[in-house]
Specification:
- The protein has a single domain (about 20-140), classed as Transferase(Phosphotransferase) domain 1 (Transferase(Phosphotransferase), domain 1, Orthogonal Bundle).
- The protein is about 40% helix and about 5% strand.
- Mean pLDDT is about 75; it is low at about 80-100.
- It is mostly helical.
- It starts with 20 loop residues before the first helix and ends in a 5-residue tail after the last helix.
- A two-stranded antiparallel ribbon has the order 1-2.
- It is built from four helices and two strands, in the order ααββαα.
- α2 runs antiparallel to α4 (about 120-140).
- GO terms for molecular function: ATP binding; protein serine/threonine kinase activity.
- This is Protein kinase domain-containing protein.
């Protein structure tokens, strides 16, 4: 984290050559093998298990928050976004009714049953399932005879 760019601190991360998982699957990773897709999913699952073992909930796991480096290694990104938004939500800097992308969100976080629901390990696992479906769906849509 660094200061000096604007009124708020800025997050700085290394450049990741292949961009997000979503963009990777739409571009250079479109034709990667089933094994390479499984490798990505297993590594994301292991990373998620690790952060949960450290009592951290990601809260916004999506295909856009998984980055793919030049070696095809997935990296989970955007940690703490929810807590940063929550911390500054009372200011004029951020106004958000719900963080995260609806497509990847566990149903219990949509606020229908519980007001002001909080992300949890269970909601992260639901989002991971959505990431898995996303990766498998891209695979099935581009491999002949796998429909």
């Amino acid at each position: 984290m660094t200061d000096g760019f604007a009124r708020l601190p800025a997050l700085v991360s290394p450049w990741v050559e292949n961009g997000t998982l979503t963009n990777y699957l739409e571009g250079p990773g479109r034709e990667i093998s089933k094994g390479a897709r499984t490798y990505i999913l297993v590594n994301v699952g292991e990373a998620l298990d690790y952060i949960h073992s450290q009592h951290v909930v990601h809260g916004d796991l999506t295909g856009s928050n998984v980055l793919i480096n030049g070696d095809g290694q997935p990296l989970i990104s955007d940690f703490g976004l929810s807590s940063i938004l929550e911390e500054f939500n009372k200011t004029t800097y951020f106004k958000s009714h719900r963080t995260g992308a609806i497509r990847w969100v566990a149903p219990e976080l949509l606020g229908e049953v519980v007001s002001s629901p909080k992300p949890s390990v269970k909601s992260d696992i639901y989002s991971y399932g959505c990431v898995m479906l996303h990766v498998i769906t891209f695979f099935a849509s581009y491999v002949p005879g796998l429909h």
